[in-house]
Here is the input.
Amino acid sequence: MVGESADTAFLKEIRKLGFHVWSDSELYSVFDIIYDYDIWETYCDFLSGKIELSEYISLLNFQDGIYPTNYVKLRCLENHDIPRINSLVSDKKILENFTAFLYFQKGTILIYAGQEFENKHTPSLFQIDKIYRNKDATIGDLMKRLYKIKKDSLFAIGDYKLKAINRSNTVIGYYEKNSEVLLGIFNLKGISEKVYVDLLKDGLYKNIINNKEILVQDGIINTSGDPIIIKDKPIL
Here is the structure.
């Protein structure tokens, strides 16, 4: 059962009018999955450049401490109420990193019809507005690969934490359980960056998103702007 909760500002406004509105923490006593609207305003503020990445990431970490252990958030980049993500980012690399980070977050994924075709047009809610089937779109192929990766049990049972690097809009995240680690690196500017990772030993690893080799040397990865997800065991 999915519960579509209200964003925090709307919830407080309705309570101000004297009505009882359940918060997400209350809704988890009834529903299995809850929308991500409790931090939606902060997500939108980050997208528009009003705040730094660390403010958004800190709330994602905060969610992990205030909800039940087995909570499931419905994560999305776009839906019927907001503009499409591809209309808000400036290039393909950024879109790929946002998409990969979406799948990496704790919870399950909402894909809005047309997102897999990199649509920019936000369709009408009240009139027939057909999806543009963009033959040049490649983000759908990335989604298929990420869907398979998302089935790893660490996404459900691992200790989850995110870190933000504001200067490059890079997110470093991990899931850790019984010495197993899933590490994710997502540059939301789509640029190259040197990233320090303290959970991996030096060695050669595989980016399980695209099967390219990743070198960890002195605890540092030289990223190329591609989204990265690494399993804990080096290949060399």
Notes: The chain has a mean pLDDT of 94. Residues 53-66 form the longest helix (14 residues).
